[in-house]
Amino acid sequence: DQQVKQNSPSLSVQEGRISILNCDYTNSMFDYFLWYKKYPAEGPTFLISISSIKDKNEDGRFTVFLNKSAKHLSLHIVPSQPGDSAVYFCAANQGPSGRFGAGTRLTVKP
Amino acid sequence: NAGVTQTPKFRVLKTGQSMTLLCAQDMNHEYMYWYRQDPGMGLRLIHYSVGEGTTAKGEVPDGYNVSRLKKQNFLLGLESAAPSQTSVYFCASRTTGGWGYTFGSGTRLTVV
Fold it and tell me: Which of A43, A56, B27, B37 has its CA 20 to 30 A from that of B93?
């Protein structure tokens, strides 16, 4: 039962352009959504989050959008940089428990 | 301030052997978690704990046991390892009022 889905396993963009990573969820009880970035041989690191009562949160080049009616969230990175190349996981919390998507590998080409 | 520390970092087991993975956090976090990461499957929750002496099952708990005897430590045990348990295991922790997890650097386990 995959409650959090990232349907694109990979994404490639040109440096300076926008990267858009998508995530869908099925459980309407999730109360917090997060994005994590992971480099090889390291643990995931927190990137940005959004509460279920909001529809947008911005932090520098990173913006997360939440569409509760569609049960969809997205991460926008503008402008994309080669150092952003990593695997991105979306996650959703319900109380103490959390679920993660399968991840999207982002490659930013110089 | 080390954050979340996992030991060991690598391990090879034979089918049927047992082992314990140790997770230690020094941030006084209440919640602790064990995830496994497999290609195409992302991070799947094995077990978690909301406080000392408590444990709860996650998405894929079968074949694993956990214990949280001390607030700062969360142990993951494999009683009889199987090749299907070959994976990278991540421990994480967070505060009760927070929402972001702090992850360890992972344990790569191979069962042959």
Answer: A56
